[in-house]
Amino acid sequence: MSASDGEGAAMTLELTPGTTCVANGRVIQIDGADSLTHMRVRDVATGAVSSVAIARIEALPKTATASSFEGIPAAEWKRCCDLAKDLTPLNSRTTVARSELEKLAKRHGISVRQLQRARATFRKDPRASALARSPGGRPLGLNQLDPEVDALIKHVIAKHYLRRERPSKEYVVARARSLARRLKLKPPSRSAVLTRIAREDGYQADRARLGCKAAKQRWEARTGKLEAERPLDLLEIDHTPADVLVLSDDRLTVIGRPWVTVAIDVATRCVMGMYISMDPPSAVSVSLCVEHTVLPKSENEGDPGIWPMYGKPKKILVDNGKDFRSMALQRGCQDHGIDLAWRPVRTPHYGAHIERLIGTLMQIAHLLPGTTFSNIRDKGDYDSAGKARLTLDEFRQWMTQKVCRTYHTRRHSSLGVPPLVAWERGLQDEQGQMVPPSLPAAPLKFRMDFLPYVMRPVRRTGITFGASRYWHPDLSPLIRQDEVMVRYDPRSPGAVWVRRPDGMLVTAPAIAGRAVGEPGSRRALDAEAQARMDAMTDEGFEKTDQIEAAAQAQTRQARHPSRRPRTQRPTPRSAAACAAAVNPTDLSALPPKTPSARAPIPVEEWT
């Protein structure tokens, strides 16, 4: 097999074992012949052995060539363009005078021989990039290590580097050099080991070191794109704990980080709804966020036009959390024609829009006093609890202002316009007229269908729920009946709603308890009172433990006589001592008399 170089001299490629060449874009070494048409070869980079057709084997180029003009440096590209400009007129000519070639070579600072080579190349491929000079150095993938040492390095990498324990590269270098010394081989250089480690970079290596999930997150192709053409075509909902600490209403206690539930419109990137609470994510927070999304915002009553987004979405995309699979949410969406869909399991990138929104909102929250930042490294020695200043209600108001007057009014990188402008444009028809979203026909019914509920009996004293009692005369027919579904709004405990069997919706206001602020209703204790209660509780535990321990010991002693303590017996005394101890005048102390025994009668025995 032969090839020609730029000078036309013949070059022969000998397909003998050990010859390095190229096949299918890979650097290979010939192991031997498989047949008259195929050779058995070994991939230099991976060590894999395969059979390759002889027609696909090419000589190894002496220097690497630039594959395209993007990789050509600016100075070299200018030289190529100038040379191509002068060589273009010569392509149509068969012969060129040497004097002309010498003049042209002098202009470009090269020899005539070099110019003739460039002209031959340019005639075959009349592109400026074909004239680029290739950088020197060894061809990519050329292996000059001893095959045994090369195999040793690959063995060490497979055994000690591609592991979940993720040892360092320097550890692998030390292991490879140590193994080579023990096998009486020349230890490989550090760069040789690191070069082969770099060749392992990819999905399989990350899967072995980081796990399947992390490897997919880094290498799996995601060519698809979640799109929505018009507002309300697709919404995403998710939760996050806010990166800030808030105070109790009396501003004396830090009550923790509030949870934020938000809904984003994919087409316009607008925040359609938001619910903030100290309670962890639940079906309640999801339902209230959906309600806030669909119905016109109550925030507009005090600040007209601040949050103009509303409307019933066609589809809602959520994750697979238990809070997103509640019966109330599913049936509410089905009843009102909303397609509720769940992301595939363990695929967080399916909710990329809501994840980016949450990241943006939390970045804004880092401006607040009392922020916890996004990680402990950013937090440093910042005293989040000591710096906290906002109550939960103030945080709600602050976040509303930031969403409506910062996020909605700032240019979005994906849209090219602010979300508010995208919303307004998305609601325009072909004539440019604004077409507002349609409202639910029965807003109160829609609200009831998404509110959380509990099952409670109706007694003569009313409905008891949340340390409060609720009553309305229209509930009288339900007394002593089965438990009824009681809808409630955690944000407004002043009333609950009950639908009677005849379809009538009864609004029962609070008549007693915490909901009406009665004395004796549940209140938070201050730190001093709580400490006093705790001390009394602890003392009570100690006293009761002592009583129980004493009772257990006495009961055990009573039920097991062998475990009773032994009493000391009196020592025997002499008769004189006993007589001396008895008062002679006290006859009662004397022992009672007993009849004396008769003397035995002597009897003569005859034999």
Walkthrough of the structure:
By secondary structure, the protein is of the alpha+beta class. It has 5 domains: 19-59, no CATH class; 75-131, no CATH class; 147-219, Arc Repressor Mutant, subunit A, CATH 1.10.10; 234-427, Ribonuclease H-like superfamily/Ribonuclease H (Nucleotidyltransferase, domain 5); 452-512, no CATH class. It is built from 19 helices and 20 strands. The protein has helices at residues 74-87, 98-108, 112-124, 147-161, 169-182, 190-199, 203-210, 212-219, 283-294, 299-302, 327-335, 352-365, 376-379, 384-387, 392-407, 419-426, 443-450, 527-559, 575-581, and strands at residues 2-4, 10-12, 20-23, 26-33, 38-43, 49-53, 57-59, 235-241, 246-247, 254-256, 259-265, 271-277, 315-318, 339-342, 453-456, 463-465, 468-470, 484-488, 495-499, 505-513. The strands form 5 sheets. A 6-stranded antiparallel β-sheet has the order 15-18-19-20-17-16, with no helix packed on it.
